[in-house]
Amino acid sequence: MRKEASIKCLWILLTVSLCSACSACSAVGAAGQTGDTIRSTQTAELLPFPEPTPSDDRNSSKLILNHPAAPKFQWRPAIREAWFYTGAMHVFRFATEPGTRAALTGPWMKNYRDSVTALRGWDDGDSFVTSYVAHPMEGAVFGYIQQHNDPQYRGIEWGHGRAYWRSRVRALGFSTIWSTQWTLGPASEASLGNVQIHESPGFVDLVGTPILGAGLMIGEDIADRYLIVGLENRTSNRAVLLLARSFLNPTRSFANLMAFREPWLRESRIGLFKENYARRKQLLGNTKRAAKNPSHSLRANQTMTPAFIHSWRLSKSPPPPSRKTSSSMEPVPEAAARGQFGSPPLGKSSPK
Amino acid sequence: MPKNESGDSLSYLIGPRWTPRASKRLSPYVQLLLGGRRITHETDDPDKRKELMDGWNNGTLPHYPMRRDWAVENQANGFAMAMGGGLDVVMNSALSWRVARLEYTHAWLPDVDQIHASDGAQFTSGVILRIGSW
After folding, report:
1. Shortest CB distance from A120 goes to which of B40, B68, B94?
2. CB of B70 within 8 Å of any CB in chain A?
3. Residues of A with CB under 8 A from a CB of B
4. Chain A residues within an 8 Å CB radius of B94
5. E-only strand ranges, chain B
Protein backbone atom coordinates (compact mmCIF):
# COMPACT_ATOMS: atom_id res chain seq x y z
CA MET A 1 0.00 0.00 0.00
CA ARG A 2 2.82 2.32 0.92
CA LYS A 3 4.53 1.50 -2.36
CA GLU A 4 1.40 2.34 -4.30
CA ALA A 5 1.05 5.64 -2.48
CA SER A 6 4.68 6.50 -3.18
CA ILE A 7 4.21 5.66 -6.86
CA LYS A 8 1.20 7.96 -7.06
CA CYS A 9 3.11 10.75 -5.32
CA LEU A 10 5.96 10.26 -7.77
CA TRP A 11 3.57 10.66 -10.66
CA ILE A 12 2.15 13.88 -9.26
CA LEU A 13 5.63 15.32 -8.73
CA LEU A 14 6.69 14.39 -12.24
CA THR A 15 3.50 15.83 -13.67
CA VAL A 16 4.09 19.15 -12.00
CA SER A 17 7.71 19.30 -13.13
CA LEU A 18 6.91 18.33 -16.72
CA CYS A 19 3.97 20.64 -17.02
CA SER A 20 5.81 23.70 -15.81
CA ALA A 21 7.50 23.72 -19.22
CA CYS A 22 4.27 24.23 -21.10
CA SER A 23 1.55 26.70 -20.38
CA ALA A 24 -1.30 24.61 -21.70
CA CYS A 25 -0.09 21.63 -19.74
CA SER A 26 0.66 23.42 -16.52
CA ALA A 27 -2.85 24.64 -16.13
CA VAL A 28 -4.07 21.10 -16.17
CA GLY A 29 -1.33 19.64 -14.09
CA ALA A 30 -2.21 22.07 -11.36
CA ALA A 31 -5.52 20.35 -10.97
CA GLY A 32 -3.68 17.42 -9.48
CA GLN A 33 -5.33 14.69 -7.50
CA THR A 34 -7.13 14.58 -4.24
CA GLY A 35 -8.00 11.80 -1.91
CA ASP A 36 -11.46 11.93 -3.35
CA THR A 37 -10.00 11.40 -6.79
CA ILE A 38 -8.35 8.22 -5.74
CA ARG A 39 -11.42 7.05 -3.89
CA SER A 40 -13.68 7.78 -6.80
CA THR A 41 -11.52 5.80 -9.18
CA GLN A 42 -10.85 2.98 -6.78
CA THR A 43 -13.74 1.03 -8.23
CA ALA A 44 -12.24 1.16 -11.66
CA GLU A 45 -8.91 -0.10 -10.32
CA LEU A 46 -10.38 -2.97 -8.35
CA LEU A 47 -13.00 -4.01 -10.85
CA PRO A 48 -11.42 -3.45 -14.21
CA PHE A 49 -14.38 -4.27 -16.42
CA PRO A 50 -17.62 -3.54 -14.63
CA GLU A 51 -20.82 -4.25 -16.45
CA PRO A 52 -22.68 -1.05 -17.31
CA THR A 53 -25.71 -0.22 -15.29
CA PRO A 54 -28.29 2.44 -16.09
CA SER A 55 -27.23 4.50 -13.11
CA ASP A 56 -23.50 4.27 -13.77
CA ASP A 57 -22.82 3.75 -17.42
CA ARG A 58 -19.77 5.98 -17.10
CA ASN A 59 -17.82 2.85 -16.24
CA SER A 60 -18.89 1.17 -19.41
CA SER A 61 -16.30 0.49 -22.05
CA LYS A 62 -18.45 -1.82 -24.11
CA LEU A 63 -18.74 -0.92 -27.77
CA ILE A 64 -22.37 -0.56 -28.68
CA LEU A 65 -22.28 0.74 -32.22
CA ASN A 66 -25.18 1.64 -34.46
CA HIS A 67 -27.71 0.31 -32.02
CA PRO A 68 -31.01 2.13 -31.53
CA ALA A 69 -30.72 1.74 -27.77
CA ALA A 70 -27.08 2.82 -27.66
CA PRO A 71 -26.40 5.09 -24.70
CA LYS A 72 -26.36 8.74 -25.55
CA PHE A 73 -23.48 11.13 -25.22
CA GLN A 74 -23.11 12.36 -21.64
CA TRP A 75 -23.36 16.08 -22.19
CA ARG A 76 -23.47 17.18 -18.58
CA PRO A 77 -20.17 15.66 -17.38
CA ALA A 78 -18.53 16.48 -20.72
CA ILE A 79 -19.45 20.16 -20.45
CA ARG A 80 -18.46 20.24 -16.80
CA GLU A 81 -15.04 18.77 -17.57
CA ALA A 82 -14.52 21.07 -20.56
CA TRP A 83 -15.34 24.13 -18.45
CA PHE A 84 -13.08 22.90 -15.69
CA TYR A 85 -10.22 22.55 -18.17
CA THR A 86 -10.97 25.99 -19.62
CA GLY A 87 -10.99 27.46 -16.11
CA ALA A 88 -7.70 25.78 -15.25
CA MET A 89 -6.06 27.26 -18.34
CA HIS A 90 -7.40 30.74 -17.52
CA VAL A 91 -6.11 30.45 -13.96
CA PHE A 92 -2.68 29.66 -15.37
CA ARG A 93 -2.84 32.62 -17.77
CA PHE A 94 -3.76 35.09 -15.10
CA ALA A 95 -1.23 33.66 -12.67
CA THR A 96 1.70 33.91 -15.07
CA GLU A 97 0.92 36.81 -17.46
CA PRO A 98 0.96 40.30 -15.96
CA GLY A 99 -0.19 41.76 -19.27
CA THR A 100 -3.31 39.60 -19.21
CA ARG A 101 -4.12 40.75 -15.68
CA ALA A 102 -3.56 44.38 -16.65
CA ALA A 103 -5.90 44.03 -19.63
CA LEU A 104 -8.83 43.28 -17.35
CA THR A 105 -9.39 46.98 -16.85
CA GLY A 106 -11.46 49.06 -19.25
CA PRO A 107 -14.88 48.64 -20.83
CA TRP A 108 -15.32 44.87 -20.97
CA MET A 109 -17.95 44.62 -23.69
CA LYS A 110 -16.24 47.12 -26.01
CA ASN A 111 -12.85 45.48 -25.63
CA TYR A 112 -14.36 42.03 -26.15
CA ARG A 113 -16.14 43.18 -29.33
CA ASP A 114 -12.98 44.88 -30.60
CA SER A 115 -10.99 41.70 -29.95
CA VAL A 116 -13.41 39.47 -31.84
CA THR A 117 -13.77 41.81 -34.80
CA ALA A 118 -10.00 42.29 -35.02
CA LEU A 119 -9.57 38.67 -36.03
CA ARG A 120 -7.84 38.33 -39.41
CA GLY A 121 -4.83 36.73 -41.03
CA TRP A 122 -3.14 33.53 -39.98
CA ASP A 123 -0.29 34.17 -37.55
CA ASP A 124 -1.10 35.47 -34.09
CA GLY A 125 2.44 36.28 -33.04
CA ASP A 126 2.81 33.30 -30.70
CA SER A 127 5.87 31.09 -30.83
CA PHE A 128 5.93 27.90 -32.87
CA VAL A 129 5.71 25.77 -29.73
CA THR A 130 2.64 27.64 -28.49
CA SER A 131 0.76 27.54 -31.79
CA TYR A 132 1.75 24.11 -33.04
CA VAL A 133 2.41 22.11 -29.88
CA ALA A 134 0.62 23.60 -26.86
CA HIS A 135 -2.63 24.51 -28.62
CA PRO A 136 -2.91 21.12 -30.36
CA MET A 137 -2.43 19.56 -26.93
CA GLU A 138 -5.34 21.67 -25.75
CA GLY A 139 -7.43 20.38 -28.66
CA ALA A 140 -6.48 16.79 -27.89
CA VAL A 141 -7.48 17.18 -24.25
CA PHE A 142 -10.91 18.41 -25.35
CA GLY A 143 -11.08 15.46 -27.75
CA TYR A 144 -10.35 12.95 -25.03
CA ILE A 145 -12.92 14.61 -22.78
CA GLN A 146 -15.41 13.92 -25.56
CA GLN A 147 -14.32 10.30 -25.87
CA HIS A 148 -14.49 9.67 -22.15
CA ASN A 149 -18.11 10.84 -22.13
CA ASP A 150 -19.17 9.00 -25.27
CA PRO A 151 -20.38 5.56 -24.15
CA GLN A 152 -20.58 4.26 -27.70
CA TYR A 153 -16.92 4.90 -28.40
CA ARG A 154 -15.34 5.03 -24.97
CA GLY A 155 -13.43 1.78 -25.39
CA ILE A 156 -12.28 2.50 -28.93
CA GLU A 157 -8.59 2.10 -29.65
CA TRP A 158 -6.31 2.36 -32.65
CA GLY A 159 -6.97 -0.70 -34.78
CA HIS A 160 -10.75 -0.74 -34.43
CA GLY A 161 -11.28 0.26 -38.04
CA ARG A 162 -14.14 2.46 -39.12
CA ALA A 163 -15.48 2.87 -35.59
CA TYR A 164 -12.16 4.38 -34.56
CA TRP A 165 -12.28 7.03 -37.28
CA ARG A 166 -15.91 7.79 -36.50
CA SER A 167 -15.01 8.37 -32.87
CA ARG A 168 -12.19 10.69 -33.88
CA VAL A 169 -14.50 12.79 -36.04
CA ARG A 170 -16.85 13.11 -33.08
CA ALA A 171 -13.93 14.16 -30.90
CA LEU A 172 -12.87 16.65 -33.57
CA GLY A 173 -16.32 18.24 -33.54
CA PHE A 174 -16.34 18.62 -29.76
CA SER A 175 -12.80 19.93 -29.77
CA THR A 176 -13.66 22.50 -32.47
CA ILE A 177 -16.51 23.93 -30.41
CA TRP A 178 -14.46 24.22 -27.24
CA SER A 179 -11.30 25.54 -28.86
CA THR A 180 -13.40 28.19 -30.61
CA GLN A 181 -14.86 29.06 -27.23
CA TRP A 182 -11.31 29.34 -25.90
CA THR A 183 -10.37 31.81 -28.64
CA LEU A 184 -13.57 33.81 -29.15
CA GLY A 185 -16.25 32.70 -26.70
CA PRO A 186 -17.64 34.33 -23.55
CA ALA A 187 -14.81 32.90 -21.43
CA SER A 188 -12.01 33.22 -23.95
CA GLU A 189 -8.70 34.90 -24.60
CA ALA A 190 -10.75 37.57 -26.37
CA SER A 191 -13.10 38.28 -23.47
CA LEU A 192 -10.59 37.83 -20.64
CA GLY A 193 -7.43 39.73 -21.49
CA ASN A 194 -8.43 40.93 -24.98
CA VAL A 195 -5.50 39.21 -26.62
CA GLN A 196 -6.41 40.28 -30.16
CA ILE A 197 -6.18 44.00 -29.41
CA HIS A 198 -2.86 43.66 -27.62
CA GLU A 199 -1.10 41.23 -29.93
CA SER A 200 -1.46 40.23 -33.58
CA PRO A 201 -4.77 38.51 -34.24
CA GLY A 202 -4.88 35.34 -36.32
CA PHE A 203 -6.81 32.23 -37.25
CA VAL A 204 -3.99 29.81 -36.47
CA ASP A 205 -5.47 28.75 -33.14
CA LEU A 206 -8.99 28.38 -34.47
CA VAL A 207 -7.82 26.01 -37.18
CA GLY A 208 -4.77 24.38 -35.64
CA THR A 209 -6.11 23.58 -32.18
CA PRO A 210 -8.82 21.09 -33.22
CA ILE A 211 -7.22 19.72 -36.38
CA LEU A 212 -3.69 19.26 -35.09
CA GLY A 213 -5.26 18.15 -31.81
CA ALA A 214 -7.02 15.33 -33.63
CA GLY A 215 -3.70 14.40 -35.20
CA LEU A 216 -2.08 14.38 -31.80
CA MET A 217 -4.86 12.14 -30.48
CA ILE A 218 -4.19 9.68 -33.29
CA GLY A 219 -0.48 9.80 -32.47
CA GLU A 220 -1.17 9.09 -28.82
CA ASP A 221 -3.52 6.27 -29.74
CA ILE A 222 -0.78 4.68 -31.84
CA ALA A 223 1.69 5.11 -28.99
CA ASP A 224 -0.83 3.55 -26.65
CA ARG A 225 -1.44 0.61 -28.95
CA TYR A 226 2.13 -0.23 -29.76
CA LEU A 227 4.36 1.20 -27.02
CA ILE A 228 2.21 1.08 -23.90
CA VAL A 229 0.37 -2.15 -24.65
CA GLY A 230 3.68 -3.65 -25.74
CA LEU A 231 5.13 -2.67 -22.38
CA GLU A 232 2.12 -4.00 -20.52
CA ASN A 233 2.61 -7.30 -22.30
CA ARG A 234 6.12 -7.60 -20.97
CA THR A 235 6.21 -6.25 -17.43
CA SER A 236 3.98 -5.89 -14.41
CA ASN A 237 6.16 -3.20 -12.84
CA ARG A 238 3.64 -0.67 -11.62
CA ALA A 239 5.93 2.35 -11.69
CA VAL A 240 6.98 1.65 -15.26
CA LEU A 241 3.43 1.09 -16.45
CA LEU A 242 2.09 4.08 -14.55
CA LEU A 243 4.71 6.39 -16.01
CA ALA A 244 4.33 4.94 -19.49
CA ARG A 245 0.56 5.29 -19.51
CA SER A 246 0.73 8.80 -18.10
CA PHE A 247 3.60 10.36 -20.03
CA LEU A 248 3.35 8.60 -23.37
CA ASN A 249 -0.29 9.73 -23.53
CA PRO A 250 -0.09 13.15 -21.84
CA THR A 251 -3.29 14.70 -23.16
CA ARG A 252 -5.34 11.59 -22.36
CA SER A 253 -3.89 11.80 -18.86
CA PHE A 254 -4.94 15.46 -18.54
CA ALA A 255 -8.43 14.61 -19.74
CA ASN A 256 -8.59 11.96 -17.02
CA LEU A 257 -7.49 14.54 -14.48
CA MET A 258 -10.27 16.88 -15.58
CA ALA A 259 -12.75 14.17 -14.60
CA PHE A 260 -10.91 13.69 -11.26
CA ARG A 261 -9.75 10.29 -12.34
CA GLU A 262 -6.32 8.77 -12.15
CA PRO A 263 -4.28 9.94 -15.16
CA TRP A 264 -3.15 6.43 -16.04
CA LEU A 265 -6.66 5.01 -16.13
CA ARG A 266 -7.69 3.14 -19.29
CA GLU A 267 -11.33 2.41 -19.85
CA SER A 268 -10.66 -0.76 -21.78
CA ARG A 269 -7.79 -2.32 -19.91
CA ILE A 270 -6.92 -3.92 -16.62
CA GLY A 271 -5.79 -1.64 -13.78
CA LEU A 272 -2.37 -1.39 -12.22
CA PHE A 273 -2.88 -1.94 -8.51
CA LYS A 274 -4.07 -4.46 -5.95
CA GLU A 275 -5.98 -7.43 -7.41
CA ASN A 276 -5.25 -6.22 -10.92
CA TYR A 277 -1.55 -6.18 -10.19
CA ALA A 278 -1.64 -9.73 -8.84
CA ARG A 279 -3.62 -10.88 -11.84
CA ARG A 280 -1.29 -9.20 -14.31
CA LYS A 281 1.73 -10.75 -12.60
CA GLN A 282 0.17 -14.20 -12.69
CA LEU A 283 -0.74 -13.93 -16.36
CA LEU A 284 2.70 -12.69 -17.28
CA GLY A 285 4.26 -15.58 -15.39
CA ASN A 286 2.00 -18.07 -17.17
CA THR A 287 2.88 -16.56 -20.49
CA LYS A 288 6.60 -16.71 -19.87
CA ARG A 289 6.34 -20.34 -18.78
CA ALA A 290 4.29 -21.16 -21.85
CA ALA A 291 6.84 -19.45 -24.06
CA LYS A 292 9.67 -21.48 -22.54
CA ASN A 293 7.77 -24.75 -22.85
CA PRO A 294 5.50 -24.74 -25.92
CA SER A 295 4.26 -28.26 -25.23
CA HIS A 296 2.82 -27.09 -21.93
CA SER A 297 -0.79 -26.35 -22.75
CA LEU A 298 -2.47 -23.33 -21.24
CA ARG A 299 -5.85 -21.95 -22.00
CA ALA A 300 -6.03 -18.48 -23.50
CA ASN A 301 -7.30 -16.95 -20.29
CA GLN A 302 -4.28 -18.25 -18.42
CA THR A 303 -1.69 -16.56 -20.59
CA MET A 304 -0.90 -13.15 -21.90
CA THR A 305 -1.94 -10.70 -24.49
CA PRO A 306 -3.20 -11.15 -28.02
CA ALA A 307 -0.05 -9.64 -29.44
CA PHE A 308 2.09 -12.06 -27.53
CA ILE A 309 -0.10 -15.03 -28.31
CA HIS A 310 -0.19 -14.05 -31.96
CA SER A 311 3.58 -13.83 -32.32
CA TRP A 312 4.10 -16.97 -30.26
CA ARG A 313 1.65 -18.94 -32.41
CA LEU A 314 3.30 -17.74 -35.58
CA SER A 315 6.70 -18.81 -34.33
CA LYS A 316 5.33 -22.28 -33.54
CA SER A 317 3.60 -22.44 -36.93
CA PRO A 318 0.02 -23.21 -36.02
CA PRO A 319 -2.55 -21.51 -38.28
CA PRO A 320 -2.75 -17.78 -37.64
CA PRO A 321 -5.81 -16.39 -35.88
CA SER A 322 -8.62 -15.32 -38.18
CA ARG A 323 -8.88 -11.65 -39.07
CA LYS A 324 -11.95 -9.90 -37.86
CA THR A 325 -13.70 -7.00 -39.43
CA SER A 326 -14.82 -3.99 -37.51
CA SER A 327 -18.43 -5.09 -37.78
CA SER A 328 -17.69 -8.33 -36.00
CA MET A 329 -15.30 -6.76 -33.55
CA GLU A 330 -15.74 -8.22 -30.12
CA PRO A 331 -16.50 -5.94 -27.20
CA VAL A 332 -13.44 -4.80 -25.35
CA PRO A 333 -14.49 -5.98 -21.89
CA GLU A 334 -15.03 -9.47 -23.22
CA ALA A 335 -11.57 -9.58 -24.69
CA ALA A 336 -10.15 -8.25 -21.49
CA ALA A 337 -12.08 -10.72 -19.35
CA ARG A 338 -10.22 -13.49 -21.14
CA GLY A 339 -7.00 -12.13 -19.73
CA GLN A 340 -5.97 -9.96 -22.64
CA PHE A 341 -4.61 -6.61 -21.60
CA GLY A 342 -4.60 -4.99 -25.00
CA SER A 343 -7.86 -5.07 -26.87
CA PRO A 344 -7.30 -4.67 -30.62
CA PRO A 345 -8.56 -7.42 -32.87
CA LEU A 346 -6.03 -10.14 -33.53
CA GLY A 347 -3.82 -9.78 -36.53
CA LYS A 348 -4.93 -6.25 -37.22
CA SER A 349 -2.13 -3.78 -36.98
CA SER A 350 -3.77 -0.69 -38.35
CA PRO A 351 -7.24 0.59 -38.92
CA LYS A 352 -8.82 0.85 -42.32
CA MET B 1 4.98 42.99 -48.75
CA PRO B 2 7.92 44.89 -47.32
CA LYS B 3 9.31 43.94 -43.94
CA ASN B 4 7.06 44.79 -40.96
CA GLU B 5 4.04 45.14 -43.23
CA SER B 6 1.22 42.67 -43.68
CA GLY B 7 -1.94 42.46 -45.77
CA ASP B 8 -4.95 40.29 -44.98
CA SER B 9 -8.21 39.48 -46.70
CA LEU B 10 -11.17 38.07 -44.80
CA SER B 11 -14.29 36.98 -46.71
CA TYR B 12 -17.58 36.03 -45.07
CA LEU B 13 -20.00 34.70 -47.66
CA ILE B 14 -23.13 32.60 -47.72
CA GLY B 15 -25.31 31.32 -50.54
CA PRO B 16 -26.84 28.43 -52.46
CA ARG B 17 -24.95 25.54 -54.05
CA TRP B 18 -26.48 23.35 -56.76
CA THR B 19 -25.16 19.80 -56.91
CA PRO B 20 -27.18 17.90 -59.53
CA ARG B 21 -25.38 14.55 -59.09
CA ALA B 22 -24.78 14.55 -55.35
CA SER B 23 -25.02 10.78 -54.95
CA LYS B 24 -22.83 9.92 -57.94
CA ARG B 25 -19.11 9.29 -58.03
CA LEU B 26 -18.47 12.35 -60.18
CA SER B 27 -20.26 15.28 -58.63
CA PRO B 28 -20.02 18.74 -60.22
CA TYR B 29 -21.53 21.80 -58.55
CA VAL B 30 -22.04 25.52 -59.05
CA GLN B 31 -22.57 28.13 -56.36
CA LEU B 32 -23.28 31.80 -55.80
CA LEU B 33 -22.17 33.33 -52.54
CA LEU B 34 -22.96 36.80 -51.20
CA GLY B 35 -21.59 38.60 -48.16
CA GLY B 36 -18.67 40.84 -47.35
CA ARG B 37 -14.93 41.19 -47.54
CA ARG B 38 -12.47 43.03 -45.36
CA ILE B 39 -9.01 44.05 -46.50
CA THR B 40 -6.44 45.12 -43.93
CA HIS B 41 -3.00 46.60 -44.38
CA GLU B 42 -0.89 46.85 -41.23
CA THR B 43 2.49 48.44 -40.72
CA ASP B 44 4.28 47.54 -37.49
CA ASP B 45 6.92 49.57 -35.70
CA PRO B 46 9.01 47.00 -33.81
CA ASP B 47 11.25 49.65 -32.22
CA LYS B 48 8.25 51.44 -30.82
CA ARG B 49 6.84 48.19 -29.55
CA LYS B 50 10.10 47.34 -27.77
CA GLU B 51 10.17 50.77 -26.22
CA LEU B 52 6.60 50.40 -24.97
CA MET B 53 7.20 46.91 -23.62
CA ASP B 54 10.31 48.13 -21.81
CA GLY B 55 8.22 50.92 -20.34
CA TRP B 56 5.59 48.46 -19.20
CA ASN B 57 8.19 46.14 -17.69
CA ASN B 58 9.91 49.05 -15.91
CA GLY B 59 6.64 50.36 -14.58
CA THR B 60 6.85 53.71 -16.41
CA LEU B 61 3.94 52.84 -18.70
CA PRO B 62 0.70 52.61 -16.71
CA HIS B 63 -1.11 50.22 -19.05
CA TYR B 64 -0.15 47.17 -21.08
CA PRO B 65 0.58 48.43 -24.62
CA MET B 66 -2.12 47.85 -27.19
CA ARG B 67 -1.46 46.92 -30.78
CA ARG B 68 -2.66 50.31 -32.03
CA ASP B 69 0.13 51.93 -29.97
CA TRP B 70 2.83 50.36 -32.14
CA ALA B 71 1.06 49.52 -35.40
CA VAL B 72 -0.79 51.51 -38.05
CA GLU B 73 -3.75 49.71 -39.54
CA ASN B 74 -5.72 50.70 -42.63
CA GLN B 75 -8.70 48.62 -43.62
CA ALA B 76 -11.80 48.61 -45.80
CA ASN B 77 -14.91 46.54 -45.43
CA GLY B 78 -17.56 46.12 -48.13
CA PHE B 79 -20.05 44.00 -50.00
CA ALA B 80 -18.67 41.02 -51.88
CA MET B 81 -19.81 38.12 -54.01
CA ALA B 82 -18.27 34.94 -55.35
CA MET B 83 -19.53 32.70 -58.13
CA GLY B 84 -18.05 29.54 -59.50
CA GLY B 85 -18.12 25.82 -59.50
CA GLY B 86 -16.14 22.66 -59.08
CA LEU B 87 -15.92 18.94 -59.48
CA ASP B 88 -15.74 16.34 -56.69
CA VAL B 89 -14.77 12.70 -57.13
CA VAL B 90 -16.00 10.38 -54.39
CA MET B 91 -13.13 8.11 -53.39
CA ASN B 92 -14.93 6.16 -50.66
CA SER B 93 -17.65 6.69 -48.09
CA ALA B 94 -15.38 8.92 -46.02
CA LEU B 95 -13.30 10.88 -48.53
CA SER B 96 -13.75 12.84 -51.72
CA TRP B 97 -11.21 14.54 -53.91
CA ARG B 98 -12.11 18.03 -54.96
CA VAL B 99 -10.45 17.94 -58.34
CA ALA B 100 -11.00 21.61 -58.98
CA ARG B 101 -12.82 24.62 -57.62
CA LEU B 102 -12.76 27.71 -59.77
CA GLU B 103 -14.29 30.91 -58.48
CA TYR B 104 -14.53 34.52 -59.51
CA THR B 105 -14.82 37.06 -56.68
CA HIS B 106 -15.80 40.68 -56.76
CA ALA B 107 -15.85 43.12 -53.84
CA TRP B 108 -17.15 46.67 -53.82
CA LEU B 109 -14.16 48.04 -51.95
CA PRO B 110 -11.89 51.04 -52.25
CA ASP B 111 -8.17 50.47 -52.55
CA VAL B 112 -6.42 49.98 -49.23
CA ASP B 113 -3.04 51.66 -49.54
CA GLN B 114 -1.42 49.80 -52.44
CA ILE B 115 -3.79 46.81 -52.25
CA HIS B 116 -6.34 46.60 -55.09
CA ALA B 117 -8.58 43.72 -54.16
CA SER B 118 -11.87 44.39 -55.88
CA ASP B 119 -11.58 41.52 -58.40
CA GLY B 120 -10.06 38.11 -58.04
CA ALA B 121 -10.08 34.50 -59.18
CA GLN B 122 -9.39 31.42 -57.10
CA PHE B 123 -8.44 27.91 -58.08
CA THR B 124 -8.21 25.24 -55.37
CA SER B 125 -7.98 21.48 -55.10
CA GLY B 126 -8.02 19.24 -52.05
CA VAL B 127 -9.40 16.36 -50.04
CA ILE B 128 -12.84 16.48 -48.43
CA LEU B 129 -13.80 14.59 -45.30
CA ARG B 130 -17.41 13.49 -45.79
CA ILE B 131 -19.53 13.55 -42.65
CA GLY B 132 -22.57 11.35 -42.17
CA SER B 133 -21.85 8.94 -45.00
CA TRP B 134 -19.77 6.31 -43.17
Report:
1. B40
2. no
3. 98-99, 102-103, 105, 118-121, 162, 165-166, 169, 197-200
4. 165
5. 5-14, 17-18, 26-44, 71-90, 95-107, 119-129
Please enumerate in sequence order all residues whose Cβ is within 8 A of that of A138, keeping only pairs 6 or more positions apart, or say none. A24, A89, A179, A182, A209, A213
> Per-domain residue ranges for chain A?
2-275
Per-residue pLDDT of chain A (352 residues; tens, 9 = 90+): 444 544 444 444 444 444 433 333 333 333 333 333 333 333 334 333 333 333 334 444 444 455 556 688 999 999 999 999 999 999 999 999 988 898 888 899 999 999 999 999 998 889 999 999 999 999 999 999 999 999 999 988 999 988 999 999 999 999 999 999 999 999 999 999 999 988 888 999 999 999 999 999 999 999 999 999 999 988 999 999 999 999 999 999 999 999 999 999 988 888 899 888 988 888 888 888 887 776 655 555 555 555 444 444 444 444 444 444 333 333 333 334 333 344 443 333 334 3
The answer to whether A216 touches A137, Cβ cutoff 8 Å, is yes
Gap from B71 CA to chain A (nearest CA, Å): 10
- ipTM value, please give it: 0.84
Which chain B residues in 95-124 lie under 8 Å from chain A, judged by CB atoms?
none
